[in-house]
Amino acid sequence: MGVMGMDWKRFKSGSDIRGVALENDRGEPVDLTPAAVEQMARAFACWLSDKTGRPADTLTVALGRDSRLSGPRLAEDVIRGLTACGVSVKNCGMASTPAMFMTTVDLGVDGAVQITASHHPYHRNGLKFFLPSGGLEGSDIAALLTLCEGDLPTASTVGTVEQVDYMSTYCARLRDLIKQEVNAADYEHPLAGYRIAVDAGNGAGGFYATDVLAPLGADVSGSRYLEPDGRFPHHIPNPENAAAMASICEATLAANAHLGVIFDTDVDRAGCVGADGKEINRNRLVALAATIALEGHEDAWVVTDSITSDGLKTFIEQTLGGHHRRFKRGYRNVINEAQRLCAEGKDAPLAIETSGHAALQDNYFLDDGAYLMTRIIIKLAQGFPPEALIASLSEPAEAQEMRYAITEPQFQAYGLRVLDELEAYAAAQGWAVADDSCEGVRIAFPPHEGDGWALLRLSVHDPVMPLNVESNREGGCAVIMKQLLPFIEKQTALKRG
User: Fold this and answer.
1) Distances (CA, A) of 324 to 34, 70, 270, 348
2) Residue 108: closest CA among 87, 128, 85, 132
């Protein structure tokens, strides 16, 4: 397929580009064709030239990919597009997404491209873009895809390609951080005596066990699925996936490990497991990251997405003495909000989503799963097991999420109207609507009405309205839902998924 007449806007997925790269058993047509990907790379070269004010043939871009089967082919397409515009390419091969941002720090490149589709199915893939200032915004992706619609220039001289082993540099940075912070008597082996199991899910994260932890003396023999395999034969590499979390819990207990670590495919998200075999993800991971990030910070803020629990808010504000800012879902949203607070003169050392995206101020506000796990492992080696650090976190007895598809063509306008109507409905029922949520309508239910909360919101990109419900007692979610159903059933364009 060529590129003329293509609907480029369909490739936009938030601040990423996503599409279908392989023939598949789902019947989804391949749209990330060689011609399409080359055009996207050309568009990035032109966009970057305009952004920097420099000719494309003076620019250098780093390129990496995760373990997806289509990665090598897409890398060839990106290289062909960039070099046709005169851009020099540093090809880093298989790499994590956070490492590709770090090439702008360590290698001084003008931009970076990572080929990944995170935890999406094997046949999908995509592109993420970075500048030294951080990842591209959704508006930047929209502008880049608009450039794809036109004829893009070709340079008189093709850009060069250099193979670069950047992951060695990235791993050395993490090892040095652990050595410096732990400052053990055996400085070179601060993790000696610790058993840490890593589950990479056959994504790009196996390096963390073999090239970061093992050289520092950790016993990583209980690790599993470290070998890159884009078929993902064992489970989806995703800390939010039940099978994936069951896998790392099992590995942690089987190895009698002090800690279990799990990554998504491209290592920008992570979760972990305590020595007790209990998951540390979602609210528990936010609590742990907040405990570490707020250390040494007074009157500081933690920015999270909108679906965090009431117990987490209490933990951040009363146990840790910080401020909790609930914001919109989407990792770029929480990062941007933390940066906005900092620009206002407030201290916001952590932006984190319950999905496992965690960006710390002391790491360029980069959502880096390996960096977060490194900070957790440092605390472990200093004598603070992660499960002990969050022992006082009050957790809900029940939590569930339902997704309602919007059948109206103008789904955003319809979804916003539903939210306005829900807010009015809640007021008529005498329910308390939270004033600290920046997304959707969050309703608090007292003990005799379910003892919890419900949040209905509109998906950022899709015609979907997720409904999250939590309760502090068994059976409470059903009580809350019984009260909400009369309103939801009147919304004829909402269909339960």
Assistant:
1) 45, 41, 21, 10
2) 132
Q: Are strands 12-13 and 16-20 parallel, antiparallel or unpaired?
A: antiparallel
**Which position has the token pair 């742990």?**
288
Structure tokens at 296: 């040494």
Q: How many CB atoms lie within 10 A of CB 296?
A: 7
- pLDDT band at 436; cut points 50, 70, 90: confident
| Residue 442 tokens, joined | 């969050």
What is the distance between the alpha carbons of residues 180 and 192, in angstroms, rounded to a whole number? 15
Compute CA distances 458 → 404, 412, 416, 440, whole Å: 10, 8, 7, 7
The pTM (predicted TM-score) of the whole model is 0.94
Domain architecture of the chain: domains with CATH: 8-164 (3.40.120.10), 169-389 (3.40.120.10), 398-496 (3.30.310.50)
pLDDT tens, 95-120? 999 999 999 999 999 999 999 999 89
Distance CA 3, CA 8 (A): 9
pLDDT, one tens digit per residue, over 117-156 is: 998 999 999 999 999 999 999 999 999 999 999 999 999 9
Q: How far is CA 278 from the centre of its chain?
A: 21
Identify residue 263 by its one-letter amino acid code. F
pLDDT digit string (tens) for 26-66? 999 999 999 999 999 999 999 999 999 999 999 999 999 99
> Which residues partner with 111 through β-bridges?
61
Task: Kindly list the distances between the CA atom of residue 269 and the CA atoms of 11, 192, 313, 378, in Å, as whole numbers in the listed order.
Answer: 22, 26, 22, 18
Beta-bridge partner residues of 219 = 195
